[in-house]
Specification:
Distance between the termini: 46 Å
Structural class: mainly beta
Strand content: over 45%
Radius of gyration: 22 Å
Shape: elongated
Helix content: under 10%
Number of strands: 16
Largest sheet: 5 strands, antiparallel
Number of helices: 0
Order of helices and strands: EEEEEEEEEEEEEEEE
Length: 183
Amino acid sequence: MSCRLDGVKAYCYTVAWMKVNPDGGSLVISKNVAGSLSKQIHLESTECPVVIHNTTAEDSGMYYCTVTDRQKIYTGNGTSVLVQAHSSAAPSVEVLKLPSSSTFGSAVPVQCVVRGAVPSQVHLYWVIGFRRERAQTDTVRAKGEVFTVSWMLMKSEDCKGEECACVVEHEGQTITKTLNGKH
């Protein structure tokens, strides 16, 4: 991570790092963050890189650098950090049909939920018949778990006699989960 001090009269050694925990939203002063004041970085530099040592899942969160020029406190835009243990197990994939409403007409909302994989390492798409489609995909944090969710509206006639599936590619593996027949 790095903190830029553009327009602020301060030094890298005065920068403090705070972390907002993803679950509870609590703010803590980060003690695992160590500034890098090597010979390559001048003490008056406006670029202040840091490293988190010996990371664990508890180090995940949004990190903000703060610095003061004795008159004001400045806070950076933040850097999101996600630490997950490496697992050789394949991620779990679940396809859910959500309750339909008259708002969607004949379309049915469906979700594909991927657990047990770092979201940035998951490539996800939908196969409807012979069409390959992308859908809205987000990273979700809940109860200490991070997972990938993709959702779309699927017409009930799209899957009659055709394959409708969520396809997940992760570390060279392809996992396909189909919808159970009729909507």
